[in-house]
From TrEMBL:
Residues 198-296 form the Reverse transcriptase/retrotransposon-derived protein RNase H-like domain. Keywords: Multifunctional enzyme. It comes from Mucuna pruriens (Velvet bean). This is Retrovirus-related Pol polyprotein. One of its GO terms (molecular function) is catalytic activity. Residues 77-132 form the Reverse transcriptase domain. The gene is pol. It holds the Pfam family RT_RNaseH_2. The keyword Cell cycle does not apply.
Amino acid sequence: MEEEAKPIRQRQRRMNSTILDVVKKEVTKLFVAGIIYPILDSQWVSPVQVVPKKFGMTVTKNQHEELVPIQTQNNWRDCMEVFMDDFTMYADSFDACLENLSKVLTRCINTNLVLNFEKCHFMVTEGIMLGYLVSNKGMEVDKSKIDIITSLPIPASLREVRSFLGHAGFYRIFIKNFSKIALPLSKQLQKDVEFKFDQPCIEAFQELKNQLTSAPILQAPSWELPFELMCDASNSTLGAVLGQRAGVSKLVHVIAYASRTMDLTQLNYTTTKKELLTIVFALDKFCSYLLGSKIVMFSDHVALRFLLKKQMQSRD
C-alpha cells in the first residue's frame, strides 16, 4: 500500500435477517480460527460483500467502524442492536432480558463506557428508537414529533417549505404515495420557480398532516413468509408498497411504503415504461428485505404481464 494513500470509509450495506445470519456465522468462524481480529483505530472501512455461489454463500469482511460493537463482541450482539452510540437490548422474557442487561452493563463497566442515565430506559415493552416508537405491535411514528409537525403554520418561504418536507419526509415510509401528495410542495423548491403557496400547496400541506396523524403501524417482516410488492405509477411519480400476509385469505400487513418523483427524462416515458420503472425502483428500494426471499409482484398494467410471459416463452 502506498504511504500517502488516503483512507476510504464506506457505509455498510443493509442486510436482511437471512443473509445477516450467514455473515455472523462466517465472521464468528474466522474470529475463532484467529484469522481476523477487531481493532479500534482503523481508518479504512469497507462494507461486507455477500457473494452467492453455486454451492452456497461466501463472505468477505473487514474491520467494523463502530466502537460499541467492537467493545461488546464475542456473542454480545446476539441480544442487542447498535446504531452509532444508541443500542437496544432485548429478549423473549423478562428474566432473560434482565440477564442480558446485567451482562451488558457489566461489560460497559469493564470497558469504561459511560451511559447517560436520563437517556436510558430499562425493562420496557415499548420505546423510542431512532425517532420511531418500537413495540411488539410493530413500528409507529413518534407522537411527540408528529404534534410538532402538525402545529407548524402554513409556510411563508422556501426555507419553511423545505423544513416541513424534511420533517414530514422522515416518516414517509408510513405514508402511501408520499411523493404524489407532496408534489405541489416539491415543485416550489425547483430552480427558477417563483414562490407561490397557492391552493394546491395548501391542500398538500394539510393532507400530509392528516396522513401523519393517522399513520398506520408498520409490521416487522417475517423471513419465513414471501413478500408482496405492489407497484403503481402516475404521470409524474412512482409508488410501491411492501407487505406480507400470514395466509391466503388474510389481509396484507404493510411493512413500508416508498415513492419518488420522476426526473425530466422519465416524464417522457411511455406508460408501460413508467410501470416497469416503478418495479425496478421498488426492487432497488426494498433490496435489503427482498434479497434471498420469495417475492410476489403485483401490477395493474397488463402489458407487463405479456412482456414477462413472452420472455419466458423465448427462453423455452
